[in-house]
Structure formats: structure tokens, C-alpha cells
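Task: complex structure prediction.
Instruction: return C-alpha cells for all chains below.
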Amino acid sequence: MKKMAFMLSTIILSIILMLGCFVAFAQEKWQGVDEAVIGKFAEEKGRQIKEPLIPLEGDAELFVFVIFSATGGFIAGYYWRQIVQR
Amino acid sequence: MHISDGILPIEQCVVWFAVAVPFIGIGLKQIRERSKTNLKYKPLLAFLAAIVFVLSMVPIPVPIAGTCSHPAGTGITAIITGPFVSVVLASIALLLQAIFLAHGGITTLGANIVSMGIMGSLGGYFTFKILRKIGVNLGIAGFIAGIMADWFTYTTTSFELAFALAGKGEFFETFLKILLAFVPTQLPIGIAEGFITSAVVVMLAKRTDIIEKINLQEGER
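Output:
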């Protein structure tokens, strides 16, 4: 019964989230809050955001994020096994 | 909450580094002491560091607001390891993100450690401790601690930005403006972080074998 309720609420929540995407109010959709808020206020006050140490653009950014996420996930899983081993 | 290079004046960056260093020092000392007596402590820290690293770079879309943001993950680490060790874990994640992922900055690392590492950890830790002390259920205490860790982080970021960007006599107004700009995105993300924190804390509490190995204190169960 609990499992059923959990699955149902997950499905309903997913549908609400998907429907919510169509009424997103931001002018530039799905910008990160770092740019949308921090970057915006910094620019308003005349601050120049410096280039990052390793600039990532286009799919290179996606690639690096995937690699680091996968590595992070692998490390978490590897050490989780060590923790639970008797 | 990742403040990039160039946004904060260099003298303020130095101040934020100076604030962060003692917390990191105490955290490192605690890690050295605890890992001497507990062989499972370092694997636990590696596990938690990976969790914070991944969680704090996952952009979650917020429908309605139309923006994306990420959880901090410091609520989880602060509850399990205490606030000082949690600062060390957050610092590692923030350093890696600043160097390799164009998230945050090197000069602003101190400010980012103060907001996410220190204030996020302290906010989550003390909320959890107080709620458990007054007898609040473990899952609910974890949930509220997760929310607080997130909201403390973004309130501190707003403070740091206002401190750097506000003109004379405009501090409070600028602080409120930045904080309110975070609200549509960070309000739901904070709640999501609450659910994640609660789930991890409840899961760990159910595994009594793990709790014994990692020496979770009585009040944290």
C-alpha cells in the first residue's frame, strides 16, 4: 500500500513538474541561478566576471559534467561498499 | 551560490578566506583524530565528499521560476560528521568545481566556503540538534535541517554579494533585493534538499551496522 502511494505521488509530482515547465516565467529559460541572480546583480553594479580557469563551452561543458558526475558516483559507490562491508 | 572570480573585491576575498581557514583547520584536526580510532571514517568521508560534490553541481530545473539551481548537500554531511568536518568536505567540492567545472572561482573560494561550507553546515547541524533535542521525529528533523542548510547558504551568499556590491547606505536594500531574487528558485530547491537530507539520514539510521562503524553519536540517531 505504501509502495503504491509512493509510486502514485511520484507520477503526480512528475506530471505537475512537466506541466509547470510550460508556464516558466523566466525570460531566459533554465539559466542557472548563479548567472540569473549573482551574475545579473554583479553586472548591474559594473562588476566584470572573469573567465574561469578552464573555460568550458558547448558540449565540452556537458562532457566534463558527465565525466565528473560519473566519477563522483563511482567514488560514492566504491566507498559505500567499503562502509557496509563486514 | 557559486560566486565567480571578479565579482568580489580582492580585499573582501581575503577576509572571507580568513574566516574560512580556522573552520577548515578544526575540521582537519577532527578528521585526523577520528580516523585514528575508526578505520571506517575515511571511507565514510570519501563517500560523503563525493555526495556533496555531485549534489552541489546538479542543476535542478524549477518549473514556474524557469531557472535551475543545485542543492548544497552540506545538511547531510553536517548531521553525519559534524559542522567542522562538513566544512572540509564542502571546501574540497568547491575547489574541484572552481578549477575544473567553471563553477565558482579561485579568488572567491573563501566566500563560497563561508556560505555553503560554514553557514550551510552550521545551519543544518544546529537545526537538526535542536529539533532532535525537543523530540522531533528523525525524518522531519532531517527534512527541516536540509531546508535550513540550503536557505542559510543562499542567505549568506546574498549577504556577501550585498557587502561587495551595495553603495553607501544601500546595504540592507541590496541584501533584500538579492535574497528575494533567490526565493522563487531556492524555496523549492530547499524543500527538495530537505527531502534528500531526510532520506539519507533515515536510511543511515536504519542501518545500525553502519552507525556502529561510523560512530554516529547518540543524539544523531
